[in-house]
Amino acid sequence: MFQKGRLTLGLNLPIEAHGNNVPTLEHQIERARLAEEAGFTCLWFQDVLLEDPTFEDPATGQIFDSLIYLTYIGAHTSKINLGTAAIVTPLRHPLRLAKEVASIERLFPERLMLGISSGDRRKDFEGLNVPIMERGRLFREAYDYFTQVISEEFPAIESPMGKIDKSNLVPKPSSRIPVLMTGYCQQTFDWIAEHGDGWMFYPQPPDKQVDMIRSYRNKAGPETFRPFIMPLPIQLSADKDEPLSKIPAGYRGGRKAITEILKEYQSIGVNHIMFNLSKSERPVEAVIHEFQDYIIPSLEEDTST
């Protein structure tokens, strides 16, 4: 899914133009399969517990629990990757999380992309009685515990999160699960560059995002390729010639303009973009088909030349 110099595309769940309304979650299997056939490489799921009217998220993530819904959609598709954007590790015990994601990876080999974050939804922290101001420390502790228990056989772990002594997590994943940091996770930039297998960062115009990508890769070092991933809200116009215009955190335009801005992101080193179609003014099926017929082939052609 991640290759140096290549941009791939994904979709956030729910795949639905629900706007400011609560999504119906209808036809998600059909749309996931359509995205798979169209050439999208990943479906992304958010980790949200509670509806919070002040957060302006009518979908409350995708309503269903991220890992349960990911497994459900994975069982009805065959090859498209399944990503979390992102699991809030201070709110999930790392041993339980390791058991869950290792099981998913064994059931759907080499399809899971594990985005992790420190979280920012105060109501979720309050609901679980976890102090939100300690999420940076909790994130590091959970990350260290998770990394050790999922990768080592009979590890010796003594952590504020728990103790592992003469016991072993099963199953172990059949292949390494890519772990993607999301934002700064309440850590330093140096820490982010040193840990994980890639970085998901917030949408910015290409002239600003390029500096962030360069800084990240310079810090991470040239010996290992680490992908850069970003979300991007879009509104794909039915008029193929409509010029590019800004919408909150993203872009609106016809397929020609959208293709060009995606090529620009590809040229600065973005490796994957996940689209949120919730604000689409067209049926999402029509948008997916237009990506399949025009935009994805154009990106692939640009990469091969």
- The amount of helix comes to 25-40%
CATH architecture: Alpha-Beta Barrel
Order of helices and strands: EHEHEHEHHEEEHEHEEEHEH
| Tally of domains | 1
Q: Give the tally of β-strands.
A: 12
Shape: globular
CATH topology annotation: TIM Barrel
Assigned CATH class:
Alpha Beta
Proportion in β-strands: 15-25%
Treating each run of at least 4 consecutive H or I residues as one helix, how many helices? 9
Please give the order of strands in the largest beta sheet: 1-2-3-4-7-8-9-12
What would CATH call the homologous superfamily? Luciferase-like domain
The parts where pLDDT drops under 50 for at least 5 residues are none
- Rounded to the nearest angstrom, the distance between the terminal CA atoms is 19 Å
| CA radius of gyration | 19 Å
Largest sheet geometry: 8 strands, parallel, barrel
Q: Which structural category do the helix and sheet elements fall into?
A: alpha/beta
Overall mean confidence score, pLDDT: 96
How are the SSEs ordered, and which strands pair?
Elements: E1 8-12, H1 28-38, E2 42-45, H2 66-75, E3 81-88, H3 94-107, E4 112-117, H4 122-127, H5 135-151, E5 157-159, E6 162-164, E7 179-182, H6 189-194, E8 198-200, H7 206-220, E9 228-236, E10 245-247, E11 250-253, H8 255-268, E12 272-276, H9 284-304
Parallel strand pairs: 1-2, 1-12, 2-3, 3-4, 4-7, 7-8, 8-9, 9-11, 9-12
Antiparallel strand pairs: 5-6, 10-11
